[in-house]
Structure to design on (234 residues):
């Protein structure tokens, strides 16, 4: 399973100090809680220690590591072991919290970390594209969320209005 | 004959629950198959498009 090779590379980078922590988000993250749905890429969120005097976060050491392992840059992805990998920095706000509270998982002997179902759902609510709304509905229909934890997250991150709008659009059967 | 939507929905829900409850390794294998099929369809569409374009150019 090629995803395990991708994750092994991220485990090596974390152990080597290229970043402090990583976790899977997006549709591949949702796979841990929902039925499989087709997805093109894997989103991997990393937290980098800030470099003094620098405002921009530089993820090039990570992309370079993957390129050294045979990865190829393709627009905003690095394609490695058959997977387009999107590397995203997450240091604060909802993504930072999702990364800090990501859960340890095991894929047939390979360690990884995944955003919690509640954080994935809150991120889907925040990003709000059609596919994100569909994913949020999947989480709700599958009863995959701890509702209290989910509502605490959306309260903390100013997503109450977005939730009301989503509820009216999809759950309350109101025009 | 009328369609029993409730029965259909129940059966779909059961299948989705079955897929949700699969071990994560098995889910990744299903995802790999889905991605393989999507890539094959994309490649086929590209080939068909290129053939159509070539035929159009030939007149």
């Amino acid at each position: 399973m090629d995803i395990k090779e991708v994750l092994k590379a991220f485990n090596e980078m974390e152990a080597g100090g290229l970043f402090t922590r990583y976790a899977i988000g997006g549709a591949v993250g949702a796979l841990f809680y929902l039925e499989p749905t087709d997805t093109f890429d894997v989103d991997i969120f990393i937290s980098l220690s800030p470099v003094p005097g620098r405002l921009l976060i530089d993820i090039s050491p990570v992309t370079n590591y993957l390129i050294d392992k045979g990865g190829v840059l393709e627009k905003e992805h690095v394609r490695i072991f058959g997977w387009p990998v999107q590397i995203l920095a997450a240091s604060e706000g909802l993504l930072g919290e999702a990364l800090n509270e990501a859960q340890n998982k095991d894929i047939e002997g390979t360690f990884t970390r995944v955003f919690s179902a509640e954080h994935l759902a809150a991120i889907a609510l925040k990003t709000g594209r059609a596919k994100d709304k569909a994913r949020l509905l999947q989480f709700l229909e599958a009863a995959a969320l701890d509702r209290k934890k989910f509502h605490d997250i959306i309260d903390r991150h100013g997503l109450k209005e977005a939730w009301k709008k989503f509820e009216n659009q999809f759950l309350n059967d109101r025009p | 004959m009328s369609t029993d939507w409730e029965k259909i929905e129940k059966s779909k829900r059961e299948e989705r629950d079955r897929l949700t409850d699969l071990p994560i390794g098995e889910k990744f294998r299903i995802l790999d198959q889905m991605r393989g099929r999507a890539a094959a369809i994309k490649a086929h569409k590209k080939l068909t498009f290129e053939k159509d374009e070539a035929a159009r150019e030939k007149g």
User: Anything to note?
Assistant: Residues 45 and 88 of chain A are 5 Å apart (CA to CA). Chain A touches chain B at residues 1-3, 28, 31-40, 105-108, 142, 144 (CB under 8 Å).
